[in-house]
Amino acid sequence: MKDFIEKIRKVYPLSDEALSLFIAETERVSFPKGHLLIRSDVKEKYSYFIIKGYARGFFYKEDRDVTIWFASSGMSLLSMNGYMFGSAGYENIELLEECDLLKISNDALNRLFDRNIELANWGRRMSDQIILELEKLIMERCFISASERYHLLIEQEPEILQKVPLRHIASYLGISQVSLSRIRAGIQ
Fold it and tell me: Which residue of 65, 118, 130, 146 pairs with 18 in a disulfide if CB–CB is 3.0 to 4.6 A?
């Protein structure tokens, strides 16, 4: 839990009081590797925060799944449509290893944001980070090669090769597993 608290305080320096308010509204849960935490087309009532573990967000397109992001300790797992609009989402979230999570209802999270300025600022900063990451992903897909994107990914998240199946990494990069194998062969 200490690592989790350090990571969320990097996003925004929450006081012990604000952090205690947040933790008091959550439930600690664990799920196994492969668990589908959030499903597309389901109205999600809960958001999750990773204490320990690794997950991916993906959607289905033309009978295959397309990975759009990865998440680790300190990060949130939620359906944006469920959280923001109370409607069904488009994304699925799969746990890539056994995960310890904090679970909180979207209603409780919004009440905390309404009542505590520190938590509201923390939530805003987390949203800002998500937007920046998605913007970065779009820019990378438009302007750099799959090989360069792969090198950036393993540079920024070196543990990803031990935690994530290569088919999900290939999907995230927008390439086939064969192309990823060729990229990897060129650097090993």
Answer: 118
Phi, psi of 176 (to 5 degrees): -80, 165
Tokens of 31: 């799920």
Amino acid at 170: A
Give the CATH number, domain containing residue 80: 2.60.120.10
176 within domain boundaries:
no
pTM tops 0.70, yes or no: yes
Domain of 57, in residue numbers:
2-143
Residue 43 forms part of a structural domain:
yes
- The total number of structural domains in the chain stands at 1
Mean pLDDT by runs of 10 across the 188 residues of the chain is 91 95 97 96 93 94 87 91 86 96 96 97 93 88 91 90 91 91 81
135 in a structural domain = yes
Note whether 71 and 81 are within 8 A (CB).
no
Which parts of 32-159 are beta strand (E)?
Answer: 36-38, 46-52, 54-61, 64-72, 76-77, 92-95, 99-105
